[in-house]
Write a structure and sequence with these properties.
mainly alpha, Cytochrome Bc1 Complex, Chain C, two-stranded antiparallel ribbon, 15 helices, globular, disordered C terminus, Cyt_b/b6_N, respiratory chain, metal ion binding
Length: about 400
Amino acid sequence: MRFINKLGPLKVLNNHLSVYPTPINLSYAYNFGSLAGVVLASQIVTGILLAMHYVGHVDLAFNSVVHLMNDVPSGMILRYAHANGASLFFIVVYIHILRGIYYSSGNQPREAVWITGVVILLVMVLTAFIGYVLPWGQMSFWGATVITSLATVIPVVGKTILSFLWGGFSVDNPTLNRFYSLHYTLPFVLAGLSIFHIAALHQYGSTNPLGVNTSTSTIPFGSYFASKDLLGLLIMLFVFACLVFFYPEALGHPDNLIPANPYSTPQHIVPEWYFLWFYAILRSIPNKAMGVICILLAFVALIAMPFISTMHIGSPKFRVLSERLFFFFVADIALLTYIGQTEIADTTIFVGQVCTVFLFLYLVVVYPFLSTFESYLYLNAVNLAGHPTGARSQVS
């Protein structure tokens, strides 16, 4: 141990991986942060290898992907590992964020952890979108056309921004080159943000699932929780292997196996599944500008969560109404994801509008104020029972 402490890099690893103090009762729900780091590393490695064979030109991009899959040894595995790795990355990060909301992990004094997490999600969304364009299939081309055109809702400079994104008057070769350059760069930005996210987390430590201050009830991470993270990693790798080797196109769209054709519009343009809940919100609002504003407001509400929360009791196990509404919120996002892939009809638009209203009600009204209401009910119940009301659970 003295030898390790004398060496700077080893000392940092020892402090943040081995002897890092961890609440004694962390559940498997806390595994997903480390799993996200593993998937990000996998995406960077497979992305670099794919870039060795990809050609960023509209006449050659689709054929370069076909060549990679058919002629390069293990190229098909490499391509499917990267494509399904993006889906796995979003699955892990979405669960990680939902766990943070469930346990109020971003509340004071961990605001920096939460804000950097939301920024990471935003960069992930941008990186995944421009990566989806690179294979230059039908859905890639038309998805890029539809999504980039949303920039026109920005007053005054909207059309200028759109022209810069396109590099001309339509989605074409300059657009592909811009997206290729950004998609190669942004994962390294994600890696830097992740390091900052971990540093902010380790400044104050992980929250306790019970929602109480247990700074004296901690154990070293490496000795007790590394095996739990390893088990989670093995399960994730098994799911990943099943996707890559048995169901490689299960999460993709068949139209993207057709070369991009600017003269043939697909019957139903949809983004990747992890963007469908965004897409459902856009479709449910008739005005395009208001749809974009609502998407931005959803991220603003996520960033503001630590500052608008009035939570006094950290664990949802002691806030039964909050726990039930949280699961309604999760079901609402799942329903928006389903609605986003269905054809446009009066029924789907109405359901999408109802789900959108509930989403914002939860983020802006329920989450900030429900805990105050629950505390009021608790104090009244204690008063009726004739017990002292001064004691409160400590803030997590």
